[in-house]
Design a protein that fits this description.
The complex is a heterodimer. Chain A is an alpha/beta fold. Helix content of chain A is 49%, strand content 8%. By secondary structure, chain B is of the alpha+beta class. Chain B has 3 helices and 4 strands. Classes of the chains: A alpha/beta, B alpha+beta.
């Protein structure tokens, strides 16, 4: 039994432990048959419900110290498909794995320990970049949230890390005292406190999992590039689907408003509001994310408004709608674009709370008045004239 | 492509007298706001600071301070509506 081992008996054959999914070193006192359960195979019935395990198999709780679970670098087609559906906000909140210690490859007492979140998307991304490495992965319970957001909430935090180090008995598994945390976990973890409480020194590794092999080969030294967070076109587009799904909540009100506008101005082509208002849900999310770096102004809302105006003008030109009948729809579409763009601050990697707060306070009155004016003014004018 | 945002870094402050030059802030900052100059930390790109709070939390001598929070409009609007301070726990559909 692991906890019965004293320091002299280290190192124990960890890779065997990991592979056999059993914590019983055979050379020690014979164990009663029940204490050393048979290896759990991939095909075995899934452990506790409600959790998405994927290929991560083999865990056997053993008294107070859980034996390591096993992970590899292979993300199956089914898992990729599931990860893709999560990107589209489908059942995103139960996409998590069991927190605790995982072995990757055939680690021993000197192998590095990586720390990560229990969001399945995060874990899959991490392990897919670790091919050929032997290490331990300590998964914190972040309630299925990615590292950076969880650090902001404090679930990827000092307390959880300290408790997880203790509950997994990590200090008895490895001979060194170094943990490698993802750099973006730093807003939640006070490294000096963890060291004081557990004796483990924290090194913040690279921002991106793809840099981990290079970081380890480099003697755990980061280059400036490994420290810097980006917001590339692909990164921006990868967060767009969730934004689009959220924006869909506005679709039915948008269509209703468009129909209302179409009927209050019967001389205008009804096609215009029906294209420009629902269409702006795509413009304010997808196109905005794609063009973010190229739009003038620092505020997200005004960048979105610029797109909204251009979109309204383009549709007016294409449908030969005169300005006199296009303006209410254009006003509404521009306001919605500004609102959706402003919401993209939460997806971005560089906005501060103070700046966002100021932007919300300045923009929201304009956005709301734009929508109200676009809806009410034509109705009032129709009644009056 | 370096992104900027208005009022970024406005609450970040560094007391050089307390700094021990341990480089922790350089290690954790995702936007290269710090650099080590003459064995002390220096703020070299304040406008890139998103006030995530990583540096201040990990600054053992307490030389750094920053008012950190979520730079998310949805969280801020929810905070305004509910009367609470903005947080990521706004809804089940958020991050």
């Amino acid at each position: 039994m692991l906890q019965a081992l004293n320091k002299e008996s280290l190192p124990i054959p960890y890779h065997q432990i990991a592979m056999n999914h059993c914590n019983c070193p055979g050379q020690h006192a014979p164990n009663p048959p029940d204490a050393c359960p048979a290896p759990r195979l991939k095909e075995d019935p899934a452990p506790p419900s409600g959790l998405d395990f994927g290929v991560i198999t083999g865990w056997e709780p053993l008294n107070t110290i859980a034996s390591p679970m096993v992970a590899n670098e292979h993300v199956s087609f089914r898992e990729r498909l599931r990860n893709l559906s999560v990107r589209w906000a489908y059942k995103r909140h139960n996409h998590r794995i069991t927190p605790g210690l995982y072995s990757f490859g055939a680690p021993d007492g000197t192998s590095p320990v990586l720390v990560t979140a229990n969001y399945k998307l995060t874990f899959d991304k991490l392990r897919s970049h670790l091919s050929g490495l032997q290490l331990w992965i300590l998964v914190l319970d972040t309630k299925g949230i990615n590292v950076w957001c969880a650090a902001g909430k404090g679930t990827f935090g000092t307390n959880e890390l300290v408790n997880r180090i203790r509950s997994t008995g990590l200090a008895r598994l490895v001979t060194h005292r170094t943990l490698i945390l993802p750099q973006l976990g730093a807003p939640g973890v006070a490294a000096q406190t963890v060291e004081k409480e557990t004796g483990f020194r924290i090194k913040y590794g690279p921002v991106y999992a793809r840099d981990i092999p290079r970081y380890l080969a480099n003697g755990m030294r980061k280059t400036g590039e490994m420290r810097t967070v980006h917001f590339t076109l692909m990164e921006r587009l990868s967060v767009v689907p969730v934004e689009m799904i959220h924006a869909l909540r506005l679709l039915i009100p948008a269509i209703l408003v468009a129909l209302l506008l179409g009927f209050t101005k019967p001389e205008s082509p009804i096609a215009y509001p029906l294209i420009v208002i629902p269409g702006c849900l795509l413009i304010g999310t997808f196109l905005f994310a794609a063009l973010l770096p190229y739009l003038p102004s620092r505020a997200f809302s005004s960048r979105g408004a610029i797109l909204g105006v251009l979109w309204s003008a383009l549709v007016a030109w294409l449908t030969h709608t005169p300005m006199s009948s296009a303006w209410p729809s254009a006003l509404i579409a521009t306001s919605i674009c500004a609102y959706l763009a402003m919401n993209f601050t939460g997806c971005s990697t560089f906005t501060s709370q103070k700046g966002t707060e100021i932007e919300v306070r300045l923009s929201l009155p304009w956005i709301l008045s734009g929508i109200f004016a676009g809806v009410l003014l034509p109705v009032i004018l129709t009644i009056l004239l | 492509m370096k992104f900027r945002f208005h009022h970024n870094g406005s609450s970040l402050s560094l007391d050089s007298g307390l700094c021990t030059g341990c480089r922790r802030c350089v290690e954790v900052c995702p936007h290269a706001v710090f650099s080590i100059v003459k064995n002390r930390a220096a703020i070299v790109d304040r406008a890139s600071c998103m006030e995530c709070g990583a540096c201040a939390l990990n600054c053992a001598p307490g030389a750094l301070s920053v008012v950190s929070g979520v730079g998310c409009a949805a969280a801020i609007i929810n905070g305004m509506l509910s009367g609470k301070s903005p947080s990521c726990d706004c809804s089940a559909s958020c991050c």
